[in-house]
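Supplementary Methods, section 5.1.

A reviewer requested that the exact input to the structure prediction be made available. We therefore reproduce it here, unchanged from the version used in the analyses.
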Amino acid sequence: MVLKIIAVFLISASIGILYRIPRRLVASASLVGVVAWLIMYSTMQSGATVIVADFFASVTVGVMAEILARIIKKPATIFIIPGFIPLVPGGDAYFTMLYMVKGQYSAGVSMGMQTILSAGAIAFGIFVSSTIFRIIKSSNRESNWQDVGKS
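The structure derived from this sequence is encoded token-by-token as follows.
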């Protein structure tokens, strides 16, 4: 388990370096990836499907990215990209193609649907968390304007 966590950290850090995230933020962005992977892993261990686990993990990525972005005053994308990389269903996409090439079409279609649904769950989770933060941010702006009118 410790080896997997180290591998996830290194994968996230590698993507962060590849996308030229500021060096002082690579470790914190990689920790977002580790937390997301741990959420996905523990959710799957509790009996949930991969799709549900990916959704919860990606919501976690989005929330952590938005919080860190506000604390550090940098774009949330710096934390989102390395954060969701451990969730990407690359192995599933590989097996989808492998099944299709081998002529096992029903297994290929099944794996392909799971891959597409996992990718959709990741995207939807990040969308949900970003939307919630935008709503909160806009409601704070409106309340600030209402306070200005009262004085």
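The chain has one domain: 2-139. These observations are discussed further in the main text.
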